């Protein structure tokens, strides 16, 4: 069924990207725009194929609403699914405009989670979704109707125009590269981090951002003698050691070395304020332990354990585990645990892959999957190599592995009536996270 749903502006800004099956590269958004803009004869059709990916889209109010799939799906079905999703979003947000999407991005993600499960439509009725949705919509009025009432209005999208609301968004993404051995030993690990900002402030006023005081740049940097609020001297394990960092050209680093303070006048719109890389050991969020047993010469049993190591009050969403099957597999049986809730499994015979999707993973929990491979020929000593590596993809909102945090964010404006809304979000994602057999 559908692999992704995303919303793009005419400028190429990505407002929403929801990956349901994780079988399509994230660069599909950029590829879609390139194809649409360079279509040779007239307007691009609403359904086309590029690079083994089928794109189905609709353009409204300067936005592209797109679903993708790698399956041989009926175009009419894809158009119907897209139309249903647009109706749901419009029913909750009031309009299908950039303003409405930006103000309701959390709500839209929640609607997509409830309406689509692993790429398959579940319930596309706006009325039925009310009991499952917890985010409150910010309804945007249609200016053509000249509605009068207490309507929340979002930021204006025209550059240079005076906005009703001043907003500053900070997103810290940490993408993990982890290689595990089958016994749970961490073979390699690193973090590719980025601090992305979206500034919608009138007048581009100066901003000050304070980062964690226990941040050290450079693996060879001597550990300083620092005490915390209780008077305890910090040890080497208490510091966040970053291999290297680079900053946007607008950043003033005058007080960064001494106080970890960044001052800048943010450009309008979205920009990457900082990139960093960490290779020092950290606590991995997931442990993967495969247990392979040879039941007979032509029958292999795999018990896969996935354990979440983060705090119990943290939840990971859309955890996706994939593995290969031996090349001479005739049949494959995949079984979930008896108490499995919110989990799906699939055996793709053509791709020689087993897929396991867990909609929501809570911290300090264990999940199990049993796979039985029936082989055409007797198993060799290399059969486990054909199964691995086992890969896992996930996203953990409001969670950071490194400990790097924004301790303060201030907009320096003398006008007392200038009220700037500031939002800080932490997201941990898998980049290359796998277990070798």
UniProtKB/TrEMBL annotation:
Gene3D superfamilies, per database record: 3.30.450.60, Mu homology domain, subdomain B
A GO CC term attached to the entry: endomembrane system
Keyword terms: Membrane, Protein transport, Transport
Keyword match Metal-binding: no
Signal peptide positions on this chain: none
Any GO BP: vesicle-mediated transport
Keyword Protein transport on entry: yes
Family the UniProt entry places it in: Belongs to the adaptor complexes medium subunit family.
Name of the protein in question: MHD domain-containing protein
Record organism: Blastocystis hominis
Lineage, opening ranks: Eukaryota, Sar, Stramenopiles, Bigyra, Opalozoa
